[in-house]
Amino acid sequence: MRRAWRAIRNARCSSPVADTAVFGRSSAALRKAVAGEGCYLIDADGRRYLDGSGGAAVSCLGHSDEKVRAAVHAQLDQVAFAHTGFFTTDVTERLARKLVENAPEGITRVYPLSGGSEAVEAALKLARQFFLEKGEPQRRHIIARRQSYHGNTLGALAAGGNAWRRENYQPLLVQCHHIAPCYPYRDQQDGESAEEYGLRVANELEEKLVELGPDSVIAFIAEPVVGATAGALAPVPGYFKRIREICDTHGILLILDEVMCGMGRTGTLFACEQDGISPDIVTIAKGLGAGYASIGAMLCQEHIYRAIADGSGAFQHGHTYHGHPLAAAAANAVLERLIDDGLVAGVNAKGDRLVAALTDRLGQHPHVGDIRGRGLFRGIELVADRETKAVLDPSRKTHARVKKAAMENGLICYPAGGTIDGKHGDHILLAPPFIISDDQIDELTDKLARAIDTALTN
Ligand code: PMP
Questions:
Q1: How close are the terminal C-alpha atoms of the chain, in Å?
Q2: Domains (ranges, CATH) in the chain?
Q3: pLDDT tens-place string over residues 165-213
Q4: Which residues line ligand 1 (CB under 6 A)?
Q5: Which of 44, 109, 169, 375 has the fewest CB atoms within 10 Å around its CB?
């Protein structure tokens, strides 16, 4: 508490953010964060914001975790940086071992990076190099899903299906192909079971493979639970089993992007554990650094690593800051908190509590169409009409209004909107810290419900 008040006092003495050299959003619309305390961020005026979305599913430990802070300080006093072209470090080795010990079956190698987009770029390049090593240079296509986001760098952006993010950069994007997402709320037909629906949409991958020629395809990439573009859209049972089967049948790689949904967010360390499959390559980021460090990682199966180690000998990739010791120290402490201190084990119970509170408060709301997700990764889809599922008028930008009203109520949530397959969906993503208390879950629900009503009526 003393830390927070010192920060507020200092901020008040500094000049307000009127004009800024920081190239970002209009700073006039931004509050200045000066302190973090548990599940709250505190601004320069001393106002507290309950972090209901961990920024964008980042801050799984809240904003003042002592173990992580201590680990970063200790590493800083030892060695801050040692280029991976010359050195490895204990912390980086420890991080890789811990991730492998807890990874989906068959995953044996870890390539630490600085964030989610970097991890996805590395995954796409590794997949291409794998086939080069195997003497299959004709493979060049990536298949992804329309409702997806894989990052803002050009390769990751090309894989993603978000039309708005892609639009300006279209001429620079490598050609990727997109199939339907698994979106039961919108697409499951009357009389069709969840399993039948899952098979039908998964089979679109096979149709696309046949169309392109399976020998020309490198990989299929998907988020197990879709985050930013859909608001915690979880697959139906059996969907990913069928996807895995199709990839194996046609000899393409399966890349799972767990940048947002991984690291315990859905109740298991890796979200795909709940779908009973293991990917060839998996990317992680946000929750791995928990906001204390900029870190991501790309993990792969031994057979992929071996093809390269026994072939040309090196993955033709790298970044100055990959394997950064300070970031690895933070991530090691985060994993200790998540796994050894049992925080992931508590996610499902807290997630159930959150869903119960949301359902109680918003389940009958005339403009809440769907409450969905897994663990502490939850989404709410807003609609004009619950019966017809008609979308809200996109020009009203209801999602932006919810975000503004929530901030005014002292709540951080992550609403978004967008048009996919001709359907517009305003949705709100919730991803609170795993340390959230029952009272804070009630506070979140109450502030969110009020923000939704304000956004819809003003
Ligand atoms: N993949 C997914 C699924 C993401 O949600 C994000 C970030 N929202 C990224 C990749 C890109 O991560 P970063 O912003 O750290 O580059």
A1: 36
A2: 2-60+344-457 (3.90.1150.10), 69-340 (3.40.640.10)
A3: 888 999 999 989 999 999 999 999 999 999 999 999 999 999 999 999 9
A4: 56, 115-117, 120, 149-151, 223, 227-228, 257, 259-260, 285
A5: 169
